């Protein structure tokens, strides 16, 4: 009987959704994490998706990061983000008390 050799296993993929109000720094934090570059200019995001290979609990994996829109006019898209995300990063501005109370 001939055994079948297992090939390399695909790295598991996890989906991280970055959420928060408009202008709080979601894109700046996301790009800093993905590209090691800090964005100083504000450019409102509708939706951007990034992929990064990283280690989680000493295992290599693929992390898909979804940078979401914070503006109220895109609130209908939030339900989809919340359904498909496996992890969530909530970003808020500590300089604006109304944003986090």
Helix and strand topology:
Elements: E1 13-19, H1 26-35, E2 47-56, E3 59-68, H2 78-84, E4 87-90, H3 97-100
InterPro entries: P-loop_NTPase, Small_GTP-bd, Small_GTPase, Small_GTPase_Ras-type
GO cellular component, one term: membrane
GO molecular function, one term: GTP binding
Outline the structure in words.
- This protein is of the alpha/beta class.
- It has a domain of 62 residues.
- 21% of the residues lie in helices and 31% in strands.
- The chain is built from 3 helices and 4 strands, in the order βαββαβα.
- It has a 4-stranded mixed β-sheet with strand order 2-3-1-4.
User: Uncertain segments of ≥5 residues (pLDDT<50)?
Assistant: none
Element order: H for helix, E for strand: EHEEHEH
Radius of gyration: 17 Å
DSSP helix fraction? 10-25%
Gross geometry: globular
Structural class, by secondary structure, is alpha/beta
Taking the alpha carbons of the first and last residues, their distance comes to 66 Å
| Largest sheet properties | 4 strands, mixed
Number of distinct helices? 3
Mean pLDDT, to the nearest integer, reads: 82
* Count of extended strands: 4
Largest beta sheet: what is the strand line-up?
2-3-1-4
Strand content: 25-35%
InterPro entries: P-loop_NTPase, Small_GTP-bd, Small_GTPase, Small_GTPase_Ras-type
GO molecular function, one term: GTPase activity
Keywords: GTP-binding, Nucleotide-binding
Pfam families: Ras
């Amino acid at each position: 009987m001939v055994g079948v050799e297992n090939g390399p296993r695909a790295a598991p993929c996890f989906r991280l959704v970055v959420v928060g109000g408009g202008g709080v720094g979601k894109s700046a934090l996301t790009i800093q994490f993905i590209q090691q570059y800090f964005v100083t200019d504000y450019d409102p995001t509708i939706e951007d998706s990034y992929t990064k290979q990283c280690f989680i609990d000493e295992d290599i994996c693929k992390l898909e990061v979804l940078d979401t829109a914070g503006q109220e006019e895109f609130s209908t898209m939030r339900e989809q983000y919340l359904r498909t995300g496996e992890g969530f990063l909530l970003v808020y501005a500590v300089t604006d008390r109304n944003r986090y109370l």
